[in-house]
Amino acid sequence: MLARRLIPCLDVRDGKVVKGVQFRNHEIIGEIVPLAQAYAEQGADELVFYDITASSDGRVVDKSWVRRIAEVIDIPFCVAGGIKSVADAGLILEMGADKISVNSPALARPELISELEHNFGQQCVVVGIDSFFDKATGQYQVYQFTGDEHRTQKTSWLTLDWVKQVQQLGAGEIVLNCMNQDGVRQGYDIAQLKAVRASCSVPLIASGGAGAKAHFADVFKQADVDGALAASVFHKGVIAIPDLKQYLLAQQLEIRP
Amino acid sequence: MSLVIVDTGCANISSVYCAFKRLGVEAKVSRDLGEIKNAAKLLLPGVGAARQAMSNLQQRDLIDTLKAAPQPLLGICLGMQLLTDHSEEGDVACLGILPGEVKRMQVGKLRLPHMGWNTLTTTDAGQQHPLLAGIGAQDYVYFVHSFAVAPSAITLASCDYGQRFAAVIGQGNKFGAQFHPERSGKVGALLLQNFLSLKAD
Description:
The complex is a heterodimer.
Chain A: E1 5-13, E2 16-21, E3 24-31, H1 32-42, E4 47-51, H2 54-57, H3 64-72, E5 77-80, H4 86-94, E6 99-102, H5 104-108, H6 111-120, E7 125-134, E8 139-144, E9 153-158, H7 159-169, E10 173-178, H8 190-198, E11 204-207, H9 213-223, E12 227-230, H10 232-235, H11 241-250
Parallel strand pairs in A: 1-4, 1-12, 4-5, 5-6, 6-7, 7-10, 10-11, 11-12
Antiparallel strand pairs in A: 1-2, 2-3, 7-8, 8-9
Helix pairs in contact in A: 1-3, 8-9
Chain B: E1 3-6, H1 13-22, E2 28-30, H2 33-38, E3 41-44, H3 50-59, H4 63-68, E4 73-76, H5 78-83, E5 86-87, E6 92-93, E7 101-104, E8 114-119, E9 121-122, H6 124-128, E10 140-145, E11 147-149, E12 155-160, E13 164-171, E14 174-177, H7 185-197
Parallel strand pairs in B: 1-2, 1-3, 3-4, 4-14, 5-7
Antiparallel strand pairs in B: 5-6, 7-11, 8-10, 9-12, 12-13, 13-14
């Protein structure tokens, strides 16, 4: 049976791992490579590295750390941030990343997704979606440039429409970042993830809101996601991955021990 | 021990290279016919689509050399699929080194690509085989694919995802792994180590 994946997410800014609350006020957590190695050893099923400054700064950053991660860890990892072209993605994959994830650049130019799929195969192409529940309209809406609070802006896309669109363009996996829940550890946005799950025939990864072991069990059981991504609970030692895996196994979930 | 990773122009070459380096083996990544012919062992990596990969091999004039290679050879993921007779992905003839047809997976309501950690079930032949020494039934390995080869007489381990498919195949000294041993933690490293330990004949 295919196991549900637990995915620590390492936000990278200027070569360090950082973490913010609701995408703001970032603090430094530590160095990239030792953290990646520690998570792999603890049983993480996959790692995601988000270069959170790249898209909003309009610059291409030094990604030599990708190669250093590929050298030490023996589980899959995905790199996101500022990938705007086939050439950008090719470089990251060549350095040893297994997948690349696109977000703001795909909103600016959706055909990027098809170009990546055509060149590297669907399995390499992850689309990250930052979705915010707007209480005024009662709608989930897609945001871009969320790495910089001053430049974060709402797009014209409703989340479910964009989810369908990126699959048609060739996305192989979707990571849904539920912005209202990000960093506040109140649980994943089950209602939204369920709605997206119903429109998503590729693997779906939940992101934003994990605060307790029960939140992981809830999101797997109720929203049927393929993986759950989390940052602060892992970085701050609130939840240890081996404990979490034991807990989820006891809940009869399919987990790689 | 000289190990050559055939430079197919595909994307996972450096992960495979690094995986061997962690085992203490400095592999050579090469598309040079002489180097490939002189290698003690060959590794055929692969990520991407079958038609493109076969056309890369053709452009690099590698097809005849690989078909005739006497050394132990391990194909990984798409590299395993390329060892078979034919792939439905792009309707392309493959190398025909191992018998088999690559078909799009039929998984019902499950999601494709089949992406993540899934369990191996070793066949009777697989349980005896040195390539899978120390790898138990129900060990988890990492898969990413939408196409697969059906189980057959040359299957050493299978996996289930909506359908049963071949996860490891082998005949003589030619082998294929549908999963990514370079990204499958300790179990994957063991398979690569076992491949390195096979007698190079």
